[in-house]
Design goal:
heterodimer; A: about 90 residues; mainly alpha; 4 helices; elongated; B: about 400 residues; Rossmann fold; Phosphatase 2c, domain 1; 2 domains; 6-stranded antiparallel β-sheet; 5-stranded parallel β-sheet; 10 helices
Chain lengths: ~90, ~400
């Protein structure tokens, strides 16, 4: 359930997260964990505010995985985010 | 309310903008601390919602800058952060943040925290408004008091003046802007000089008002109701009231009301310079110090009742012959009760000792010596009471 007041800004937010998936995949290829950490930190702070607690949770795991330089965990989280966005169905209330 | 949102994350800025506008606020946006700092310099925004971690200038440093600048109006700052440890909270608060919220934030929690901030700013504004009003009122009262003090000073006689063979001098130090002490000396006619020293009980404006009234009442002019000198019954001349009569008359006129106990002590005297005789009345005031030329000082006076305290009070008159070189010194208890740092009073014996040891100096030198001794005695302590020293010498 997403706050109906946010209906007009949610698409832009989700578009940003889809771009995050692209950036995360590129960062993974480059081994750029700092970029991964920043993206994860940002997702963690914003997801829940928009009503997407799942994004916050994936962000938290990404940030942690980047700090540990755990390539496999980063890859897993990135794909989990892509999957989350793919399957997401939004109901405004 | 105008709120400045500071966050390097576009999605957070958009989200906060949406919520805040929905709650009726106006919103300014900044993408980092540096941009926010510029906005704070060019607007009067008082409410800041800032992220902690940002490029260029972070939220904590922004808080420090705002607090260091001491802006004219208070700036309320809520730090938004993904850090949720106690240590981080302490760092944020110490930097000057008023409140702290962990991201992702809850919409309703944010709403009530903003309301709490608004209440603080309103209280701050009310306090500032009240302070401004108080300052205006204080300045107005200060100016009035200073004008009143000037009027009081203008009523005082000139120091060092000589009247019919008597030279007068004085020291006067009011403890607040206006004084409850007053004194004067003047000719009643070709043969008589009058002098008085008065100490109204209490300090400040009420005491000064009575003191001012008394100064005007105890005047030389033959005017209706003058207690010192009245027109004779047949209108051909005037009659000088005896000091004891003056004290009794003033006691009737200035009797305290039931609500306010206001009284004063006084010495009023008349010098008949043809007969070289002093007659005076002592009404609750410290006694006179009589310094006969070349002889030890003597204390003269039995006390008497203060004026305005008791409806029926008898006042006794004292008489004294005065000869060349004799001195009379009158003082208010502000001198003898003046305390040093150890709490010890200056005391009557110490005053007399000074007066005695300076009896071979001029009256002016004696006055300055006592004034200097009192200043040294009290050091940097504030005066607790008005100080008046009035003296005259037969020359």
């Amino acid at each position: 359930m997403v706050d109906a007041d946010l209906e007009d800004i949610v698409p832009g937010f989700l578009e940003g997260r889809r771009k995050d998936v692209i950036d995360l995949r590129q960062a993974l290829r480059d081994g750029n964990y700092e970029t991964v950490r920043i993206i994860g930190h940002t997702m963690k702070g914003s997801g829940g505010g928009y009503g997407f607690q799942g994004i916050t949770e994936i962000g938290r795991q990404l940030e942690s995985a980047a700090e540990e330089k755990n390539r496999e965990a980063v890859r897993h989280c990135t794909e989990e985010l892509a999957d989350y966005l793919e399957r997401l169905q939004i109901f405004y209330q | 309310m105008l709120i400045l949102v500071v966050d390097d994350d576009q999605s957070i800025r958009t989200l906060l903008h949406k919520y805040l506008m929905g709650w009726g606020h106006k919103v300014l946006l900044a993408a980092d601390g540096e941009e926010a700092w510029q906005t704070l310099q060019s607007t009067d925004v008082q409410f800041v919602l800032s992220d902690w971690t940002m490029p260029h200038l972070d939220g904590v440093e922004l808080c420090r800058r705002v607090r260091a600048q001491k802006r004219q109006k208070y700036t309320y700052i809520i730090l938004l952060t993904g850090r949720d440890t106690k240590d981080e909270l302490i760092i944020g608060m110490e930097a000057g943040a008023d409140d702290f919220m962990v991201k992702p934030f809850d919409k309703n929690e944010l709403k009530v925290r903003i309301r709490a901030g608004e209440r603080i700013l309103k209280l701050e504004k009310d306090l500032a408004d009240r302070n401004r009003k108080l300052n205006r009122a204080y300045n107005r009262m200060r100016k009035d008091l200073e004008a009143a003090a000037r009027m009081q000073i203008e009523l005082l006689p000139k120091a060092g003046e000589c009247y019919c063979g008597f030279v007068f001098d004085w020291v006067f130090l009011p403890c607040s802007v206006v004084a409850g002490d007053t004194f004067n000396y003047f000719s009643l006619d070709d043969r008589h000089l009058a002098f008085h020293i008065i100490d109204v009980a209490g300090h400040g404006i009420p005491a000064a008002m009575l003191s001012f009234t008394l100064s005007k009442t105890l005047a030389a002019a033959v005017t209706p109701g003058n207690p010192l000198r009245s027109a004779s019954v047949d209108g051909s001349g005037y009659r000088i009231a005896r000091p004891a009569e003056v004290a009794a008359e003033l006691n009737q006129r200035f009797m305290s009301g039931q609500e306010t106990m206001q009284y004063f002590t006084m010495v009023y005297g008349i010098i008949d310079h043809e007969r070289s005789e002093l007659s005076f009345v002592q009404a609750g005031h410290p006694p006179l110090v009589y310094l006969p030329h070349g002889q030890p000082a003597r204390i003269i006076g039995q006390g008497g009742f203060p004026i305005g305290m008791l409806p029926v009070a008898d006042y006794e008159e004292n008489r004294l012959g005065l000869f060349r070189g004799d001195r009379i010194v009158l003082y208010s208890d502000g001198i003898t009760e003046c305390r040093n740092r150890a709490g010890e009073q200056f005391s009557e014996p110490r005053l007399i000792e000074y007066l005695q040891s300076y009896s071979h100096h001029s009256l002016r030198e004696t006055m300055l010596a006592v004034e200097d001794a009192l200043r040294t005695w009290r050091g940097d302590a504030e005066l607790e009471d008005d100080i008046t020293l009035l003296a005259f010498e037969a020359v």
